[in-house]
Each structure stands twice: as C-alpha cells, then as structure tokens.
C-alpha cells in the first residue's frame, strides 16, 4: 500500500468555512505504488486541525473529483451503509475505506452514546460490548454477517434504547434558551433591583463616592468569586435542572446539597413576596400622591400584592417562553430608565431642582461628596449590609439550568457578563449622582445666598444656595434625605417609576420561576421522601406546576403578613449561604484532586474559591449576625437529617474523592510507622463464604473487631474459572451492600481458584493494604468432617497449616448447630417470590372483578388483556404445591436461632478462658475485647490455667499478678492440676470409635500388605502415629472432661487451639482431636496466636 501524493489528490488549502475539527481523508490504495516510487516527496499523512468553532464541529474534507465517493458519510463519522455488498472483512478495495473504522469488529469505536447516563434527555444510552464479549472466544454457531459487527459495535438494538429515544423525542419540542435570554437577561434584571433607584443615592450620601465605590467593589468581589467558582463547577460536566442545588449536591454530595437546596428554594419563594411588596409599596405611594387610597396603606399593599402575584403566576404557568418574553420587555424598560437617568444628569437644572440639591456635574460637589459623612447609628458595615442584597441575583440564570440549550456555555458567559455590566451601571450611577447632587437641601427656591455670607467651603453655597439650616433641622431633599433623587435627576421622572416597577416585577418573576425549578430538582432526587409529590412535571418543558402553586401559597402568606423587615435579613443570608457553598464546592473539588475534576473554565483557583467562601460567611455576619446564626442552625439541622436518612444516591461527589484521598494518605502514613504491641488489634480474615450464609460466624468476629480492627469476609469460588469469575463479579456489590445494610463494619473479598486451599492461600497473602493486613484467620468448625470427601479435609487442615506458615493466628469457632444457613435462605427466597406472585394474582383478580360491569366486546377484550398478565399460572400452581408439601416443622428452627445467638444481648454469665499454652496473649485479648461490647458487658472472665497439684495457690497468685499487670479484669482464676491424668475409659472409648474408620491397623497385617495400604491410603492414621502422640490424644479427651465439669454453663469458652505438627499428625487425627475437645459444649473459640506478643504491661 502506498500514499498517492499527486497534485490532484489533496484538498485546496483554503476551506469554505472554518470548523473546529477537520479531517483530511487521504486516498490509500495498493494500486498506486508506482506513483509512490516516481514521486520522491515525503508521504502525507492524515491531518487533524483545530480552528475557530463553526456550525459543525466535525467535518470531513474531500479530494477534488472524489466528492461523490464520500457522499454517504454522515457528519458523526458513520457511513450510511447503502451498499449491501460490502464484505465485513474486505480490506483491499476502495469501498472498504468508505465504511466507519471498526465496522468489521465487535470492538467498538469511541462514541458519546457510551458515556451517557441511562434515560438521558440528550440522547439514548448505548451499551458498548463488554470485555467478555471481545475477550472470550466467539461461539461457533454465531455467524458474522456484513455489517453485523458494526451493529454490535454501535450498540444498535440494545435493550432499553428505544425507551430512551422516545424520551428524547418527547423533549424535542421543549423550549430552550441561549445564554442571552436565558442567563444574561435574567441575571441583569435580578441584580438591578429597587436598590439602584431608591437606595444607591442614600448610600453615596452616607459613605461618600470613595467608600461607596469600595462598597460596590467589595460586593462585586463576592459575586465575581462566586461566579468564577460556579463557572468552574458547571463546566465540569453536563448540568441539569436545579441551579445552585444541582451544582452543590453534585459537588459536595446530597448532605450539603439537600440542606442548602431546601432553604434556597424557600428563600426564592419568600423573595417573591419581598419583591412584590416592594412593587406594591411604590404603587401605594403613587396612590397617596393622587389621594386614591382604597382602604389604608397596609391593606392596600396586601390587595395590590395579591393581584400582582396572581398575574405573575399566570405568566409563569403559561410557560417559560412567555415568561422569557416578559423578562425581555421588563429589561428594555429598565434600560430606558437607566439611560433616562444619565441623560437627565446633563440636562441643565432648573431652579426647582437646584433647590432640591441637583446642580449638574460640579467638581466642588464631587470633592465634597467624595468622603464619608455617616449619620448617627450608621457606619461602613451597616451601609454595606444595606447595599449588598442589590448585588445578589447572579444565580437567576443557573436556577433554570434545565431550560438552557447549553448550560455549560451559557451559565459562565451570561453570569460573568451580567456581573460586569451591572457593576459598570452601579459605579456609573453612584459616581454621577455623587457629582451632581449635594447631601442636604431644603427644597426652597428662596434659600439663596445673601451677599457677604461666608460659605465655609460648602459646595451648595458656592453655587448660590444656602442649605445651612439642614444642620440643625431635618431636610427633605438631597442624597441623605430623599430616596427619589434619581427620579428628580432624570430627564423624565415617570420613567424611573417604570424602572422601579420593572426591577421589582422582573425580580419577582425570576424568583417565582427559580423556586419551583430548584424545588422540583430537589424532589426528583428523593432527598426528602415526603416531598416526592412535587417532583412531577407537566408539558414539553416538564413544568413544575405543583411547585408553582406551592411557591404561590408561600408568597401569598408572606404578602398577607406584610411584615418582611424581620425575614429579609434571613433570606439574604440564605442566598449568601448558597454562594459560600458554591465557592467551597469549587475549592473542595480542586483540593480532592479527583481525576474527574476537569472544568473547561480554567480561570479559577482553589484558594481564591476558599477565600470567596470565607468572605461570604463573613458578609453574612456583617449583614445580620443573628440571621447568620439562624441560617447555620437550619442548615446544620437539615445536614444531620439528610446524613441520618442516607439517601440512596451516588453522584461521585468531591466528598467521596476526599475520603479516598484521606484514607490513602493515612494508609501510606501507617506504612512509615513500625508496629507496636500496644497498638495491636485483631485484624481478621473470616471465611464466611457469602456473609449472609454464615451470620453467626461473622457476628462473633465482628464483636471483637468492630471499631477496633479490620474484618474481611472472604469467599472462595471453586470451579471452572469463567463461571466462577462471572458469579464472583456479579455478587460483589450485593454482598458488600448486605454488610452495609446490616451495619457490619467489614469488607467483602472473593477469589476464584482451582481448589479451596489455593484460594485461601491467596487471600492470606494478598488481602489488606500496608499495615492494615490481616493477622488472624477465623474459620468455622467443620461439623460434617466425618462424611466429607478426603480433599475437603485436606484443604481444611491445610489452610490452618498455611496460616501458621504465614505467621497468622487462627481462631476456629464451633457452635452446636453449625453456621451454614444457605438452605434456610433459599427457602425464604422461594417464599418471598411466592408471596409476591400471590399478591400480583390477587391484584389481577381484583381488577377483573372491578371490571365485571363492563359488558360487551370491549369489556371482554379488557378482561382478556388482564388475564394475559397471569399467563404462567401452571408454574405458580406447581410452586404452591411444592411449598405446601413442606411443613414448617421441616425448617431447622434451631439452626435459625443459632445463627442469631451472637446478635442477642448475653445475659449475666461467664466467658471461660482456658489459657493452656502461651501464644502471645491473643487468647486473652479477644475475650477481653468482647467484655467491652454492649452485648457481652455482663459476662465476667474466668481464667483456667494448667499447673502442678502441689503449687495451686502459688500459681494462682502468679497468674493474678500477671493479669493485673495486663490491666485485665477477671472474676476468678482456676489452676487445673490434673490435666495430664488419663481420661476415663468411656471417654477414651468414644475417641477410639471416632477414629476407627480412619485407622490403617498396619500392625495387624504382614509387612507387604501394610506397605501397600500405606501407599494406597496415605491419609489414614497409622498405629505408629497413634502411639507416638498418645499422650496428646489423652490430653484432648481429658480436657473435654474438664470442660464438661467446669464450663458447661459458660456463655462462651475460649480455648487454646492444639497445633498439629506438619508431617507428624494426620489430618483425620487432628480433626478427631478438635471434635473430642469441643464436643457437647457451649460455643467454643479455639484460639492460637502467632506466638508474638499482643499484650504488654509496659507504658
């Protein structure tokens, strides 16, 4: 194959339009090798270029003359597949290259559909071939038809795709907004509030132009930092509906998101009432001027406010498109009003306006107003607290994120531009009004300067007016006294009133839309289950109509109360708390260093975001300290509630990432610290199989590892590797979830192996991490060892040998009924299925009975349709017959009760510790830890040790001294002096009968026969072996007699585990030892440490 570099092959270098992604397709053909030899130019390869973004993000460029050959290419890079004659493995013709790369293989090419969430509204979720699909050998009866591999690779025909596609079609008609109408307009309208028209002049009068600019700048710093953090978060993945709640919850998790989401939605709902009351107050002031009051000021505010909020609700319910049109109209009115003010500042002032303090631009007025002149009770922070709510509103666009075409692009662009434009407007108005209007004016045209009067540096005096009496008596005009300064300065006063109406109504409308949208997103996530009713949406835009009416009710309630001065600071603090958490979310995500944190908006810094969060919290206390305290208390309460409820969601929050980083750092730090005996704790591998199948074994282990040590529930899958791995992988999450659901602090681990012993050996060597490695193996006693196959016994005893080889302690637990309840679980599962089928059958019969009155053919078809649901009736009947044939008495109730015995509180009793051999102290440490647990705290420790008959008291005193140094409390100490006495004949006979089936009896046979039997059955107990360890066998039988005598009534017996020397003790003899040692006793723990100290009396 060669590359043809002739001049007619390549594209013209000047494409018709510049696109973001361009691929120049090169002609590849083995037939053009001659041209390659004739042409010495270096080869040209496939080129990729990135340019300015155009309408299409991906474009394929064609060579002249070959356009028609590539007409079947789609813009997504897929072929139209119109030629059915293409062979799946044809790689030698030009037609092969007309198909998508990857068409002839099950292995899939990269596609966005593989990375979508299930049910995504942006398109269907497609499942790529699994690793098994491309790794395992193809079935022989599967034929690869042309294009079939491409169908699999592209995920066509995947179950569930049709539903997702239909959902996408339903959303196709939804109204979506761009960054201007969706974000910029809304943010500008929300930031430009009533404060711009009726309070900014007063702020300049109090703080002066200099501090006024600083106040505006400080407010803008808070909002800008929040805007930057929000931009970083919303460009780190697809943003759905919910605004601030969505951003915070997906970053910090449901605990923070759920707490702030509820109060943020409530704050927006109450803000509707605040803005509507502001509008109503302005209308009432106009009614006062014209003497047109309806009842009285308070009730007029209620009447006008109620009518207004009903109209706004109608606009909102009509749909987002109508609401957006209303917002644009209100913005135009607002812009005209602002422009009207600036025009008015250059229109020459008349005598009436001069008397009220307006003199156009004057350097003397600017100089006089530059410094502060705080009145009594006011200061920088009090004035800042009054102005700051005017700078809020930057979340207005983000709150409708679900209605934006491209939230990732629209929110940063619209929000930051809105902050810039509104900041320029605020600064411009503040400086202009400070340069045109004096602080105090009488309003009287007769207060002019008398010749010879000393001005004392007053700007008004220098301009011919005497406002000196304002120092001694209150005046009604000037920056300090008149809230309607902008109306006076403007070219046409009524336009300022229209601007006030526009500012209040637009903010109210934005809040009325924001609150239900945020609340709906919160309810959809089911954080608060009682609020699920409000999650439902209606229409093509999924409008939260129920949320609209809830917001309407809240707004109406606060309008009728008409006492908003008290609630206003709390609402402002609710918004600030949202800003603080947005900043903290950005910091937290950056600090967690998760690879998933890749925001496209790169102009951010985590420390700047942290500073923004701290600044927001500080501003909360500056505005109103008690409101800030109330906000934190409410948020903390909701956080605790959500944490307690533990919603079943997983959003990959930065909290999870930080938890991982913290755990990893701590694990690495532990590796630098040497182990010390004082910090020893049992870290156990428990061979439970599935944790639910042997709950008693897990419970007793968890009792001494909970909150103190590592516990790993392990399962070994034995069998064909493919089936074992599949079964193992499918159950991992389920079994770990079972541990979490049952509040068991343990991990689940599983391995697939050729035999049980190999699997356990792998677990013993590889489990754990760093210093958090298991040091103790916990297994259940093999109760059926006499009936078990030889390999099972060899594996069971072999894992004990392996544990000792790896210097890992061993604990064998025996209870009378055994541990395995898998059969009981299987029966319970069948009963549950039967109950579900019974309920479904009853529901179907009930539905049929309710429709018996529907006669005719239509009713008949309805009944037939219902009956089709219960088609598999024979199977159900067979199940019923099967279960009915089983009596309740057949269930092993004792086994079920035994499986829960360690979950119950142990009454007053004893834990008998038979410390016969020193293993480092593990046999003493485990029962001590048990006595610290709530279920075992009423049990006392009784210590049994071996000793000489003539030194009973001395050895008891010595053991008491040792235990006291270990600081282990005990109820009694018993020194047993007759352990080495031979057991009675009956007990020994039981032991001999026990081992009889496994004896070789070679001494009774001739030498040749004996040798042959040894070769054929090397596992059997020889007479020589039995004679060599006869004393040890006596000891095990004698110990059982002593245990029956002293510890038969104990709640738990902890006993030294005998060690079988490798190569000397056969497996069956060892099992017989364990059997006779623990026979007919309460629950027994056979414990053997690794003979390294786990106890110390040194400090």
UniProtKB/TrEMBL annotation:
<feature type="transmembrane region" description="Helical">
    <location>
        <begin position="328"/>
        <end position="347"/>
    </location>
</feature>
<feature type="transmembrane region" description="Helical">
    <location>
        <begin position="209"/>
        <end position="239"/>
    </location>
</feature>
<feature type="region of interest" description="Disordered">
    <location>
        <begin position="32"/>
        <end position="51"/>
    </location>
</feature>
<feature type="transmembrane region" description="Helical">
    <location>
        <begin position="260"/>
        <end position="281"/>
    </location>
</feature>
<dbReference type="InterPro" id="IPR013612">
    <property type="entry name" value="AA_permease_N"/>
</dbReference>
<dbReference type="InterPro" id="IPR002443">
    <property type="entry name" value="SLC12A1/SLC12A2"/>
</dbReference>
<feature type="domain" description="Amino acid permease/ SLC12A">
    <location>
        <begin position="182"/>
        <end position="685"/>
    </location>
</feature>
<dbReference type="GO" id="GO:1990573">
    <property type="term" value="P:potassium ion import across plasma membrane"/>
</dbReference>
<feature type="coiled-coil region">
    <location>
        <begin position="824"/>
        <end position="851"/>
    </location>
</feature>
<keyword id="KW-0813">Transport</keyword>
<keyword id="KW-0769">Symport</keyword>
<dbReference type="GO" id="GO:0006884">
    <property type="term" value="P:cell volume homeostasis"/>
</dbReference>
<dbReference type="InterPro" id="IPR002445">
    <property type="entry name" value="Slc12a1"/>
</dbReference>
<dbReference type="InterPro" id="IPR018491">
    <property type="entry name" value="SLC12_C"/>
</dbReference>
<comment type="similarity">
    <text>Belongs to the SLC12A transporter family.</text>
</comment>
<keyword id="KW-0325">Glycoprotein</keyword>
<feature type="transmembrane region" description="Helical">
    <location>
        <begin position="301"/>
        <end position="321"/>
    </location>
</feature>
<feature type="domain" description="SLC12A transporter C-terminal">
    <location>
        <begin position="694"/>
        <end position="1099"/>
    </location>
</feature>
<dbReference type="Pfam" id="PF03522">
    <property type="entry name" value="SLC12"/>
</dbReference>
<keyword id="KW-0739">Sodium transport</keyword>
<feature type="transmembrane region" description="Helical">
    <location>
        <begin position="380"/>
        <end position="402"/>
    </location>
</feature>
<keyword id="KW-0630">Potassium</keyword>
<dbReference type="GO" id="GO:0055064">
    <property type="term" value="P:chloride ion homeostasis"/>
</dbReference>
<feature type="domain" description="Amino acid permease N-terminal">
    <location>
        <begin position="90"/>
        <end position="157"/>
    </location>
</feature>
<dbReference type="Pfam" id="PF08403">
    <property type="entry name" value="AA_permease_N"/>
</dbReference>
<keyword id="KW-1133">Transmembrane helix</keyword>
<dbReference type="Pfam" id="PF00324">
    <property type="entry name" value="AA_permease"/>
</dbReference>
<keyword id="KW-0633">Potassium transport</keyword>
<dbReference type="InterPro" id="IPR004841">
    <property type="entry name" value="AA-permease/SLC12A_dom"/>
</dbReference>
<keyword id="KW-0812">Transmembrane</keyword>
<keyword id="KW-0472">Membrane</keyword>
<feature type="transmembrane region" description="Helical">
    <location>
        <begin position="183"/>
        <end position="203"/>
    </location>
</feature>
<dbReference type="GO" id="GO:0008511">
    <property type="term" value="F:sodium:potassium:chloride symporter activity"/>
</dbReference>
<dbReference type="GO" id="GO:0016324">
    <property type="term" value="C:apical plasma membrane"/>
</dbReference>
<feature type="transmembrane region" description="Helical">
    <location>
        <begin position="492"/>
        <end position="515"/>
    </location>
</feature>
<keyword id="KW-0175">Coiled coil</keyword>
<feature type="transmembrane region" description="Helical">
    <location>
        <begin position="570"/>
        <end position="591"/>
    </location>
</feature>
<protein>
    <submittedName>
        <fullName>Solute carrier family 12 member 1</fullName>
    </submittedName>
</protein>
<dbReference type="GO" id="GO:0055078">
    <property type="term" value="P:sodium ion homeostasis"/>
</dbReference>
<keyword id="KW-1003">Cell membrane</keyword>
<feature type="transmembrane region" description="Helical">
    <location>
        <begin position="414"/>
        <end position="438"/>
    </location>
</feature>
<keyword id="KW-0597">Phosphoprotein</keyword>
């Amino acid at each position: 194959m060669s590359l043809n570099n002739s001049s007619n092959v390549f594209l013209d270098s000047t494409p018709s339009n510049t696109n973001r992604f361009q691929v120049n397709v090169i002609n590849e053909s083995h037939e053009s090798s001659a041209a390659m030899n004739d042409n010495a130019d270096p080869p040209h390869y496939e080129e990729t270029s990135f340019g300015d973004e155009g309408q299409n993000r991906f474009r394929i460029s064609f060579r002249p003359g070959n356009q028609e050959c590539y007409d079947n290419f789609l813009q997504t890079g897929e072929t139209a597949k119109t030629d059915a004659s293409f062979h799946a493995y044809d790689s030698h013709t030009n037609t092969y290259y007309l198909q998508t790369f990857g068409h002839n293989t099950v292995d899939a090419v990269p596609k966005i559909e593989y990375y979508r969430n299930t049910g995504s509204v942006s398109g269907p979720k497609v499942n790529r071939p699994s690793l098994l699909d491309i790794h395992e050998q193809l079935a022989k009866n599967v034929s690869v038809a042309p294009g079939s591999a491409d169908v699999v690779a592209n995920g066509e025909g995947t179950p569930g795709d049709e539903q997702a596609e239909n959902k996408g079609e339903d959303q196709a008609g939804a109204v979506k907004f761009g960054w201007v109408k969706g974000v910029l307009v809304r943010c500008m309208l929300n930031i430009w509030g009533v404060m711009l028209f009726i309070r900014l002049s007063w702020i300049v009068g109090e703080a002066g132009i200099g501090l006024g600019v600083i106040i505006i700048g400080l407010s803008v710093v808070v909002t800008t930092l929040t805007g930057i953090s929000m931009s970083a978060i919303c460009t780190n993945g697809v943003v759905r509906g919910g605004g601030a709640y969505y951003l915070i919850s997906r970053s910090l998790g449901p605990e923070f998101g759920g707490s702030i989401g509820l109060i943020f939605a409530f704050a927006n709902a109450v803000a509707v009432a605040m803005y509507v009351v502001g509008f109503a107050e302005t209308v009432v002031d106009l009614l006062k001027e014209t003497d047109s009051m309806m009842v009285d000021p308070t009730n007029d505010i209620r009447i006008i406010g109620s009518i207004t909020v009903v109209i706004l609700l109608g606009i909102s319910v009509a749909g987002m498109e109508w609401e957006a049109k209303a917002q644009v109209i209100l913005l135009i009115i607002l812009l005209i009003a602002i422009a009207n003010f600036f025009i008015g500042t250059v229109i020459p002032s008349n005598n009436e306006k001069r008397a009220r303090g307006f003199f156009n631009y004057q350097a003397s007025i600017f100089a006089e107003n530059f410094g502060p002149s705080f009145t009594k009770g006011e200061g920088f922070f009090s004035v800042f607290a009054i102005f700051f709510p005017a700078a809020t509103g930057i979340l207005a666009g983000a709150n409708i994120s679900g209605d934006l075409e491209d939230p990732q692009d629209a929110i940063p662009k619209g929000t930051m531009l809105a902050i810039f434009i509104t900041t320029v407007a605020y600064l411009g108005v503040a400086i202009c009004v400070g340069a045109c209007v004096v602080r105090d004016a009488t309003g009287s045209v007769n207060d002019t300067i008398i010749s010879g009067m000393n001005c004392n540096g007053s700007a008004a005096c220098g301009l011919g007016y005497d406002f000196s009496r304002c120092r001694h008596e209150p005046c009604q005009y000037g920056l300090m006294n008149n809230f309607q300064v902008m109306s006076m300065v403007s070219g046409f006063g009524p336009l300022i009133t229209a601007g006030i109406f526009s500012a209040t109504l637009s903010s109210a409308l934005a809040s009325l839309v924001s609150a239900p949208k945020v609340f709906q997103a919160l309810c959809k996530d089911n954080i608060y289950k009682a609020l699920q009713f409000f999650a439902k949406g209606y229409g093509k835009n999924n409008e939260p109509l129920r949320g609209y009416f809830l917001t309407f009710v809240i707004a109406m309630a606060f309008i009728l109360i008409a006492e908003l001065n008290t609630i206003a600071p709390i609402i402002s603090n609710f918004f600030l708390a949202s800003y603080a958490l947005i900043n903290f979310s950005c910091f937290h995500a950056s600090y967690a260093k998760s690879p998933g944190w890749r925001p496209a908006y790169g102009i951010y810094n985590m420390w700047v975001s942290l500073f923004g969060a701290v600044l927001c919290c500080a501003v909360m206390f500056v505005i109103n300290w008690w409101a800030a305290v109330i906000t934190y208390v409410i948020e903390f309460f909701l956080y605790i509630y959500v944490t307690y409820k533990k919603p079943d969601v997983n959003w990959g929050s930065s909290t999870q990432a930080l938890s991982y980083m913290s755990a990893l750092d701590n694990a690495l730090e532990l590796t630098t610290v040497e182990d010390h005996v004082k910090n020893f704790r049992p870290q156990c591998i428990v061979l439970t199989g599935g944790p639910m199948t042997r709950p008693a074994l897990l419970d007793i282990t968890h009792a001494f590892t909970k909150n103190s040590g590592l516990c790993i529930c392990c399962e070994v899958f034995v069998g064909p590797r493919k089936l074992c791995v599949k079964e193992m992988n499918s159950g991992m999450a389920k079994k770990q979830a079972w541990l979490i659901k049952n509040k068991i602090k343990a991990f689940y681990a599983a391995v697939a192996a050729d035999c049980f012993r190999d699997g356990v050996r792998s677990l013993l060597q590889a489990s754990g991490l760093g210093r958090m490695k298991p040091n103790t193996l916990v297994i259940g006693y093999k109760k059926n060892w006499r009936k078990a196959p030889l390999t099972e016994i060899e594996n069971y005893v072999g894992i004990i040998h392996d544990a000792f080889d790896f210097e890992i302690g061993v604990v064998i637990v025996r209870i009378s009924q055994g541990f395995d309840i898998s059969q009981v679980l299987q029966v319970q599962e069948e009963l549950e299925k039967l109950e579900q089928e019974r309920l479904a059958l009853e529901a179907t019969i009930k539905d049929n009975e309710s429709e018996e009155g529907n006669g005719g053919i239509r009713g008949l078809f309805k009944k037939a349709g219902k009956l089709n649901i219960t088609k598999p009736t024979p199977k159900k009947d067979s199940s019923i017959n099967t279960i009915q044939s089983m009596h309740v008495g057949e269930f092993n109730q004792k086994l079920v009760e035994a499986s829960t015995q360690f979950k119950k509180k142990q009454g007053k009793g004893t834990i008998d510790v038979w410390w016969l051999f020193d293993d480092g102290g593990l046999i003493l440490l485990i029962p001590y830890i048990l006595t610290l647990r709530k279920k075992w705290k009423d049990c006392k420790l009784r210590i049994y040790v071996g000793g000489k008959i003539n030194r009973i008291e001395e050895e008891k005193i010595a053991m008491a001294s040792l235990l006291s140094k270990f600081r282990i409390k005990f109820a009694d100490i018993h020194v047993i002096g007759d352990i080495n006495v031979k057991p009675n004949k009956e007990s020994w006979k039981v032991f001999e009968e026990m081992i009889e089936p496994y004896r070789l009896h070679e001494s009774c046979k001739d030498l040749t026969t004996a040798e042959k039997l040894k070769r054929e059955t090397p596992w059997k107990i020889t007479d020589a072996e039995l004679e060599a360890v006869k004393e040890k066998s006596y000891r095990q039988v004698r110990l059982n007699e002593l245990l029956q005598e002293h510890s038969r009534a104990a709640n738990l017996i902890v006993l030294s585990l005998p060690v079988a020397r490798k190569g000397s003790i056969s497996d069956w003899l060892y099992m017989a030892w364990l059997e006779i040692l623990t026979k007919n006793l309460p629950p027994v723990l056979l414990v053997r440490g690794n003979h390294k100290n786990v106890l110390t009396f040194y400090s």
